Amino acid sequence: MGAGEERVGAMRDDADRRLGRRALLAGGAAAAVGTAVLARQELSRLWWRLPGVERPRVAGAVDFRGARWVAASAANYRRADRPDDYPVDRVVIHVTQGGYASAVKVFQDPSHEVAAHYIVRRDGRVTQLVRELDVAYHAGNRSYNERSVGIEHEGFVEDASSFTDAMYAASARLTAAICARYGMPVDREHVIGHVEVPGTDHTDPGPHWDWDRYVGLARRARESREKI
Ligand SMILES: [Zn+2]
């Protein structure tokens, strides 16, 4: 999990912040049509007309087939339009240091300012909490948050038995799908632990996480995806 970075976004009203971005971009369009003043609604309509700025979102939609959707608090991520605004070139592996339910509760609590895109349970069940379009606050490093997809794993860094076969298999399929989506190689340069994020004091996923096994599984999952 990450610390409470990017406090600025949380302190400001989301609608106002988004209007600021809309106004900035729609300003050019307004000048082009010769209109001096536009009402707020008109600004936002122009914004939606601009191509490629933001994809339509469907409530409850997930980026990984079979994932269950549980929304994180909007204070725990920043809306974005990845990979158009921020290229995605990392998967960051985390361990929750607690149970699944308590981790989900933290991600739904606006006071924590942390959330990952996904959490994988001991039984291999995958839950998505933040769309990959958006910047989740999981890495404790702004640029790594912007460039990565974060996957939490239920369990404890110091407890090797946390990491079950079902968890490895499901998470590896998820990582394979993410790497395929953004054209990333499945390797230890692109699939990293939270411990490897610059400046972090977090140690997850820790010494019991079997990287050779995980990357091997993810590579095989990627290859079988390509054969389909
Ligand atoms: Zn972490």
TrEMBL record:
Q: Which residues form the N-acetylmuramoyl-L-alanine amidase domain?
A: 77-206
Q: What is its EC number?
A: 3.5.1.28
- Gene Ontology MF terms: N-acetylmuramoyl-L-alanine amidase activity
Q: Which UniProt keywords apply?
A: Cell wall biogenesis/degradation, Hydrolase
Record field: catalytic activity: Hydrolyzes the link between N-acetylmuramoyl residues and L-amino acid residues in certain cell-wall glycopeptides
GO biological process assignments: cell wall organization; peptidoglycan catabolic process; peptidoglycan turnover
Pfam families reported in the protein's UniProt record = Amidase_2
**Could you tell me what this protein is called?**
N-acetylmuramoyl-L-alanine amidase
Species source reads Streptomyces lucensis JCM 4490
